[in-house]
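Dear Dr. L.,

I hope this message finds you well. Following up on our conversation about the binding site, I have prepared a predicted three-dimensional model of the protein together with iron/sulfur cluster. For your records, I am including the exact sequence and ligand specification that went into the calculation, followed by the structure tokens. Please feel free to forward this to your student if that is useful.
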Amino acid sequence: MEDIFSKLERLKKERNAVILAHFYQEPDIQDVADFMGDSLALARQAQQTSADVILFCGVHFMAETAKILNPQRTVLIPDLEAGCSLADSAPADEFSRWVRKYPDHTVISYINCSAAVKALSDIICTSSNAERIINSLPEDEKIIFAPDRLLGAYLAKKTGRDLKLWHGACQVHEIFSEQEIVRLKVRHPQAKVLAHPECTAAVLQHADIIGSTTKIIQYAVEGPETELIIVTEPGVIHQMELANPEKTYIAVGNTEGCSCNECPYMRLNTLEKMVTALETLSPEITMTESLRLAALKPLERMLELS
Ligand code: 13P
Ligand code: SF4
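The resulting structure of the complex is given below.
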């Protein structure tokens, strides 16, 4: 009988499909992906692919970004319910009303938002390029940053800019426990702490390296330390173990002290749902052409600036 891996391989050929996956996907999905990356790398890859079908193993806003950038392709997501608490925190109508209160501000939105919110923004950014994008604007430019208030606060501190912040947060990164990190640091005094900038300021003050998932993986694998405390979704540890199995990667629990630090949306995707998506060519990401064009503008500005 054909196993699930051979089935996926066959369907991929039949559909002329490419599998893109984020680092927070479960290890089996990472292993069958043609390309892995953080939000910025995945957006670039989606723009460049010539495959007929993009099977996007990540969350909805990422697959939607792929469609905005490459509308000729059929973009599939294994589970349509794979959302994001940050994207959900900014409903477009509410966001539009809020933005209208600051007509003289430039709106920078983190890529973790819906196409409708992108369409209301001037520039999109990711965790890899947010600092550079803010710094590329004149010092006296008034800026709105949305939807992540924690990333926004971190960027305001880093760039010295006074950013108007929307109130969203990532439900995974928001609950990492400072106490737990301090406890792990005492237990592993040689370890370096690597954290994603969606964490709280209380957590980030203990970090040696703050950055995107790519930056965290790269440092963990290439840096001199043999023990690393990883303060982001533990999916990233799979790539670290593949690239450098000699080191010790320590995942951090959340405020309840458990290890339930996995993104519940990312983890909705499974190999079985990937097979169904390629068999049925659904769920497919679709949007009106006018929305796509409006959301494309700030994304193109991001790609030019990064
Ligand atoms: P990266 O772009 O750093 O991979 O982050 C995506 C994300 O959703 C973090 O929670
Ligand atoms: Fe969204 Fe947080 Fe999940 Fe990233 S980890 S996709 S920001 S809910």
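In brief: The mean pLDDT is 96.

With kind regards,
A. P.
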